[in-house]
From TrEMBL:
UniProt name for this protein: GTP 3',8-cyclase
Cofactor: [4Fe-4S] cluster
Gene3D superfamilies: Aldolase class I
Subunit structure: Monomer and homodimer.
Gene: moaA
Record's cofactor remark: Binds 2 [4Fe-4S] clusters. Binds 1 [4Fe-4S] cluster coordinated with 3 cysteines and an exchangeable S-adenosyl-L-methionine and 1 [4Fe-4S] cluster coordinated with 3 cysteines and the GTP-derived substrate.
Keyword Phosphoprotein: no
Residues at which [4Fe-4S] cluster 2 binds: C249, C252, C266
EC number per UniProt: 4.1.99.22
Gene source species: Tindallia californiensis
GO biological process, one term: Mo-molybdopterin cofactor biosynthetic process
This protein's UniProt keywords: 4Fe-4S, GTP-binding, Iron, Iron-sulfur, Lyase, Metal-binding, Molybdenum cofactor biosynthesis, Nucleotide-binding, S-adenosyl-L-methionine
Binding site for GTP: R13, R63, T94, K155, R254, I255, R256
Binding site residues for S-adenosyl-L-methionine: Y26, G67, S118, M189
Xref: InterPro entries: Aldolase_TIM (IPR013785), Elp3/MiaA/NifB-like_rSAM (IPR006638), MoaA (IPR013483), MoaA-like (IPR040064), MoaA_NifB_PqqE_Fe-S-bd_CS (IPR000385), MoaA_twitch (IPR010505), MoCo_biosynth_MoaA/MoaC (IPR050105), rSAM (IPR007197)
């Protein structure tokens, strides 16, 4: 289905939980969050029903997110059920990687295609600081496991924060020399908890790209927001995702489902559609409800304009 701006919407990002086993500085409050009651959260069965209703509208690609999706029980069974839906061609997952060493193989057998792994430091103590207790070794073991399973490409998502971890730019880029992975630098977005960080610590990807020097540009992947480059002789690629300095709204092909049952046409808008209530009240009409949410997708965000209105929800509440 195309939205009102003739963008083909074929990609749904599904947050299955707002809980996480880390407390990253720019994402979650140190004390964590209050756990919602089951009645206010989407069940796996309701998510599956929604996806089935979305397929006739053109949705064929899913990304499972959180919070940290691997902390919700039964996630392997969910992936198995989603992979069995006719018309779904790809299921990926964004994770912090801490549980991948044990869970990557069963997820692959269930039908998961590949992983995006969020990691903002390669220094053990700094990683522990930015995640408030995370263990870098577990994440690196998880990355190795995914590579061993051949779930390629493995994508590492890294947020460079001015005055904090930008000194690791070369370390991340150099990972692509010896490993067939994509290291993707994502600009810090003013969403929820990160809003005040973005005002003082934002660093554009253009700045990072210039610091890296000579990079060979690669042809862009269809449907991907990243602009890809390669270091000479490298096995992997370097990507830059620029939601602030060079937005890709004109090519946006996605819609988001939160764990508490809200359809968000745009990450950076406060407009939401209560699909959970609609699904429980009138399940026969759910396809039309999804269609209305897609029709409401705005032409673009306005984060880089003066007096911009930021999303009221944190990223872990929306889905990373």
């Amino acid at each position: 289905m195309a939205d009102q701006y003739q963008r083909k919407i074929n990609y749904m990002r599904i947050s299955i939980t707002d809980l996480c086993n880390m407390r990253c500085l720019y994402c979650m409050p140190e004390e964590g969050i209050q756990k919602k009651s089951h009645k206010n959260m989407m069940s796996y069965e309701e998510m599956i029903t929604l996806v089935k209703a979305s397929v006739p509208l053109g949705i064929n690609k899913l990304r499972i997110t959180g919070g940290e999706p691997l902390v919700r029980r039964g996630v392997v069974d969910l992936i198995y059920s989603l992979a069995a839906i006719e018309g779904i061609n790809e299921i990926t997952m964004t994770t912090n990687g801490s549980l991948l060493e044990e869970m990557a193989e069963p997820l692959k057998k269930a039908g998961l295609t590949r992983f995006n792994i969020s990691i903002d430091s390669l220094k053990e103590e700094r990683y522990k600081e930015i995640t408030r207790g995370g263990e870098l070794k577990k994440v690196m073991n998880g990355i190795d496991k995914v590579i061993d399973l051949g779930m390629m490409p493995v994508k590492l998502n890294t947020v460079m924060i001015g005055g904090y971890n930008e000194d690791e730019l070369d370390d991340f880029a150099n990972l692509t020399y010896d490993h067939p992975i994509d290291v993707r630098f994502i600009e810090l977005m003013p969403v929820g908890q990160a809003s005040h960080w973005a005002k003082t610590r934002f660093i554009s990807n253009e700045t990072l790209r210039n610091r890296l020097g000579l990079l060979h540009p690669l042809k862009g992947n269809s449907g991907s927001p990243a602009k890809y480059y390669q270091l000479a002789g490298a096995k992997g690629k370097i990507g830059f995702i620029n939601p602030i300095s060079d937005h890709f709204c004109g090519e946006c092909n996605r819609i988001r489902l939160t764990s508490d049952g809200k359809l968000k046409p745009c990450l950076h808008s406060n407009v939401e559609f209560d699909v959970l209530m609609a699904l429980r009240k009138d399940p026969q009409n759910i396809e039309n409800f999804i269609r209305s949410a897609i029709d409401a997708k705005p032409e673009r965000h306005h984060l880089n304009q003066e007096n911009a209105i930021y999303s009221e929800r944190n990223m872990f509440q929306i889905g990373g």
